[in-house]
Amino acid sequence: MTFSPPSPARLGRRGFLGASVSTAATVACAAAPALAAPTDQQPLARHGIRRTVGVLLPESSRYPTLSAEFLAGLQVGAEASEHPPRWLPLPYGRSPQAALRQARAAVGSGAVDALAGWLPMQSARDLVPLLEANQVPFLASDTGADRLPTRLAARSPWLIAHTLGLWQSCAVLGQEAPRRWGSRALLCMGFLESGYDFPHEFRRAFEAAGGTVSAVHVSGLPDGSDEFAGLRSAWHSARADFVVGLYSGAQALRFQRQWSQLQPHSPPPVVGTLFSQGPADAVQALPRGWASVASWNAGSDACRSIAARCTPRGAGSLTDLSGPALLGFEAGQRFAQWQSNSAGVEQLALLCAAPDNGPRGVQPHDLVSGERNGTHWLRGGTPATGVATELAWATRGTPAPLGAPGCSGWATPYLVT
To answer: If pLDDT is split at 50, 70 and 90, which confidence band does 42 have?
Structure first.
């Protein structure tokens, strides 16, 4: 379906994506047998017994290998430590409420000394009283598809945000687009993506930089219409210089095929996120003229080295470093340092700050917004011709006023469907 400007469809917050709680993510856990329930046969850490970290793991039909990639990254990130912490998998299906129940049970029973895993801050904040009462830190990982609500900026130090900065990447894309591809854009997205902040943050930054979104197309509406109905007419009526394609999973691959059929000879530039390329293990090359933006340089030698080390640990056949594997790796690095140091404020500081040798380098922390933001990378469409270009975050400020409301509509984490 195509929407005319000035505004795309803004959908009310719903929880239908997480309406049913699925069974435990046994596939992800089976892919990492070394992460079974902790035992007492592991050696002592330098400052006492080895600590246990509960790892919240979702199930995703949109991204089936998400949990396996996160777990593999977690192990690789901590492997440099002589005595890494013990990992206790806590699979929760697709419901944030189920994740909260798992976390409360683990913390309340004293089974864990810390929490990690895949849960956005908007849901994880409900755990703050429990975390503070038990002095259990939670490093909450997520794509960062939504802006962090302003009221969370002064959150408890026991709850630590750890994201891919997806909305910031899309804002950088919007800032850069007018001078790189033109001032008129056709904004295409899946129905899933339309309920999060990151497509709207692209538009907000793009229009602030002088661009115009001449048409918006949302694919896969739940009204029974054809998935890409109206896409051809949207392109012809938009008279756009380039296309923004925000999709994920198998739908991203279907959009690539559909667009290639519509524009077989002289396709315009198409830009999106790394998730717009489809599943991490998709082997097909992106069509000519496609580009992606992310907060990490997935195809760099350093990132590919990490991806190669994740593969034998159940992450599948990764060539470039995927988002879930990256978050797992960074969390593993932080918890390895946390394990080797004494308790209290010093430990929290180690979990809050990324190591200097992390794949994303330094990510400054904005004390006002509560967000972290660093360098973003633009990559060309094919390995043969694509060269990563560093996009530094503009020092003049964020693409939207501090405290600006988000446009998100879904209550579940992005990709957890």
So the answer is: very low
3-state secondary structure of 193: helix
Amino acid sitting at position 173:
L
Q: What would the two tokens of residue 171 be?
A: 């804002």
pLDDT digits (tens, 9 = 90+) for 70-90: 999 999 999 988 889 999 999
Phi, psi at 291, each rounded to 5°: -145, 160
Give the Cα separation of 270 and 256 in Å (integer): 10
Q: How many CA atoms lie within 13 A of 401 on its CB side?
A: 3
Tell me the C-alpha distance between 157 and 161, whole Å. 10
Encode pLDDT of 270-305 as tens digits: 999 999 988 876 655 666 778 889 999 888 889 999
Q: Look at residue 187 and give its three-state secondary structure.
A: strand
Average pLDDT, integer, range 236-263: 92
| C-alpha–C-alpha distance, residues 171 and 373, integer Å | 11
Cα–Cα distance for residue pair 323/306, rounded to 1 Å: 12
CB-based contact 150:403 (threshold 8 Å): yes
pLDDT at position 156: 86
Helix axis angle for 249-262 and 231-238, nearest 10°, is 60
Name the residue among 139, 67, 73 with its Cα closest to residue 103.
139
